[in-house]
Each structure stands twice: as C-alpha cells, then as structure tokens.
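Q: My labmate handed me this sequence with no annotations at all. I'd like to see what the chain might look like in three dimensions before we decide whether it's worth expressing. Could you predict it?
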Amino acid sequence: MRLRNPFRLGVMLLYGILAPLWLASCVSDSGPGAPVFGSITIITVTTGPAPDPDGYSVLVDGEEVDAIGANATLTLSNFAPQTYSVELSGVADHCVVLDETTQDVPVEPDAITEVTFELDCSEPLPATPVARLTITDENERSVNEDGRLEATAPAGTFASFTFDASRSEPGAGSSITAYEWLSNGVLIGTRESFLFALDEGEYLISLTVTNGAGLSETASATIVITE
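A: Here is what I predict for the chain of 227 residues:
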C-alpha cells in the first residue's frame, strides 16, 4: 500500500504518544493521585461513682478540636498520614487518667486509628465546712469572725444584735445541716440568721456549722456591752 502523506502519519503517531501524558497531567487532585487521609477515633471509658459531668476536651497536637463525654466515642477525620499527639484535658480534680493524658497516634492512609483513655472518678472526699459569722448591732456596726464589737446599753436594758452565718461554706459535695450559736457556752440559736438581745457584760459568741458529712468547724467573735 502506498502512503499518500508520510508527514501526516508522523504527526498522528506523535499525538498518540503525547496525548495520554497530557491527559494524565490534567487529572485533578481528587483523582487517583490525590492524598489519602485517615481518621482518629477517641474513646473514653470512665469508672467510679462521680463521672465528670461536663466531660473532657480533646486536643490534637496541642490544639483543642472538640469535646467528648465521660463515656463516649468521637471520630475525627481528614488527617494526613503521620503521627499525631492526642491529649485529654479538662479532667475534674477527683478524676484520674489511668494511663497517659497524652498519647501518640499513628494515622494510616484510608484507615481509622483508635485511641482509648481510661479514667477513674471516685467520689470527692467530704471537705470540712468553713464557719463565718457576722454580728451587727442596732447602729449597723458589725463584726466578723475573730473580731470584737463594743456596744452600750443603759443599766437594766438590753442591746439587740443580728447574728448571721450566711457567709459560711458547706465544703465540697455537701451542705450545711446544722447551726449552733453559743454565748459564753450557752446555746442561743440554731438558725442561720436571727435576732438576740444581751445586757451589760462581755460575751464570747461562737458559731459551729456542721455539713452533711458530719464535719464541723467553729468561728467566734467577742461582744462587749457597757453602760
């Protein structure tokens, strides 16, 4: 067979070689040559009677990325293949991470890598309450714990005072269940706040508060009444 146009045939052959290469170079990043990402699944397993109510924070390479519950699973996607540092933060004081709060997690292409954090949240130990008192006289002068208040009252009369324990604190995980006010060792009140009158003399006023765990603390102040 006789070739009519040898030049045209050569161009066609050259196009047949170069066209596939050109088309391959035009494939977008979403095609077969694109990077393949992996995922990280974080699992928290919390034991104990007092799990952290607001859960924890998840950090990846030092950056906070999401939150996770006390017993939960969280999957994070689109991680390039490499090793990441995954950290659990925001752990309550009474909770302890049983292994490490930070773990190295290698991510593989098109795969899910799991990392588990085990925690123990024991019930917080009852804390001793804090007793705080405020005693105020009729002239709006007041004294707090460890203080001294001087007042006057004509002979044969009384001076009235307001006794207040509202600044007291119950201690962690508890509440104040009892108030005991003593004047020179004599019981004068069992409420958080009340009015009481005293005549001439010097009085050591003590307040003892008791919380739901049965723990107590006492605060005191001195009142001196003269004519």
